[in-house]
């Protein structure tokens, strides 16, 4: 009985609960690492787990938008595909005319992540919701990253149409994602958590050509 009580107590603390967190693609971490290809045909896949993701709604140019921008320290993107901020830290993706996704990959999500933004909207139309558990982030990088995506991405990924620091809602295979081109050879994919397993396996299969091995 004493042992059971101790176990319950240890998992009731914030630190204990944090230790139990498992990201949607954690069980495939070894498979992703093993699929890494180096050299001229390089490509790698990893999960960026537990990054802060806030769903924001505000009319651009409104008092609500100004309130959110003051809290974020960043302007909201002005139009389709645009990004503001630093992809290596805090940044905001345009999802729709009045819909945005604020992301911070430099911080681990914790309870209350959306509180400051929600408080800034008090009495104003708009919304700020913590969506960190809604999607995970998969990072695909390397010389062959674009070729891997082009096997099943519905968007035109040519640099003329999809330059660095552009993000769009699209599909990769049958999976809806937000796709963000973060660098010349780097992309982030935002699938719903429930689709993470399928998408990782789809990407691993698409990567196998570049290593000369088939994923089974």
UniProtKB/TrEMBL annotation:
InterPro entries, sorted: SoxG (IPR007375), SoxG_het (IPR006280), TrmE/GcvT-like (IPR027266)
Organism, scientific name: Arthrobacter ginkgonis
NCBIfam families: soxG (TIGR01375)
Matching Pfam families: SoxG (PF04268)
Protein name according to UniProt: Sarcosine oxidase subunit gamma
Superkingdom as given in the UniProt entry: Bacteria
The organism's taxonomic lineage, starting at the top: Bacteria, Bacillati, Actinomycetota, Actinomycetes, Micrococcales
